[in-house]
Amino acid sequence: MGKAEKKQQQQEVQNLIPGLPDEIAMECLIRVPYKFHNDLKSVCQRWLNLISSHSFYRERIRSGKAEHLVCQVQPLPLSPPNPKDSSSATTHLVSDSAAKITSTKKDQQQDDDDHELHQQRQEVHRTPLQYGLTIFNASNGTWERIRPHVGRIPMFCQCVAVPASRKLLLIGGWDPITLEPVPNVYVLDMVNNSSRWRRVKPMSVARSFFACAVVGASTVCVAGGHDGQKNALKSAEVYDVEADEWRMLPEMDEERDECQGVCLEGDRFFVVSGYGTESQGRFKPDAECYDSKTGSWSKFDHVWPFPSLSPRGSTATITSNRLQQHQWLWFLGKEQQQNGEVVEGKIVSSIVPLPKSVTEGSSSPCVSVTTLHNSQQQQKVFVMTGNGGRGCSSSSSSAAALSSFICNECEGEGAFIMERDMSNGNIKWDHVHLPVGFSGFPCSASFLLI
Asked: How many domains in the chain?
């Protein structure tokens, strides 16, 4: 073999795909669906290094091949024994002596079976509710569940996605056994180890039902919520994801339980509404904003005009270049739609009417909202409801024109993707199929582009 042939062979071995320039090979690899990335890593060292790098996922985003992942903390389905299964098992056990059993004994056996089944069902309902992390891939419509390796996921914990590092954090919530607030924090690296949870440094204060948002590239701010005595909190702290360190922030002016966290302009952390210890259930109309540049809080009035409604989960934050304004989208029921638009400085809070199939059953349905896409041409938001219809597909600029249809194949209540055309304001709702076992209302949700 000549020198030229040896050189060519060595070059091919070093290439990502032998016989192809690396530029073409990269175009091939970035098109491989995310669910196969762990398989790609096992092919060779070069592929392992490439698929484990953040530059690979930035290239997927740049080329429009990245997938939209909605990450939700959902209650796991409770599965009581099937009466048919119990009946058939009993029949199988006694079949050899069935001819010798009198009708009285058969009745007694049935009564015993019914009693045992009733006890099993009661045991299921006494079992503490367990939660799992659900991933809905909005790009291909698939659902999967990632079970923790670190014990049970805390109830009502906050699910936070950090886009820069492509990590998921589960923060705070309740211990599922004691129902006490916990300071625990868990991290899941969606690039390097998407099947292994890691427990990291806990918060300084155990809290639940608090405001939470990613601020900057790799920090997460939390504020408010309540402690183990159900006292509303005004304390706040910030977590550095890369350094694994927490530090306390100055306290807010007021206690805020059941508040909503929103980040604007990359470094401003808003804590919207909430209530104090002595005014439980009466939600404040204002918000407090922490500016990381000045290290201080300021108050914004007329932000949340619904004193009997929690803002948690119903908010999508949209940044609009029009008039350099930021837009908060509130996804609300029919009673709140009459409030229209609220303007405070550069913040516009707009009411987005939910599909009729959702609001027919309740004036204030539970809603979990996750922003999927935002551009000058289109806004796209994933919405999962806690009551209402099975499905809806409609298009209009007003609530009156919304129509619905029934999806007989869905389990549960309602999941939708809203698309809004920014040129004319028209809204289109598309139904999202909910497979069996994925209909539980999420206590928290976030989004990753990967």
From this structure: 1
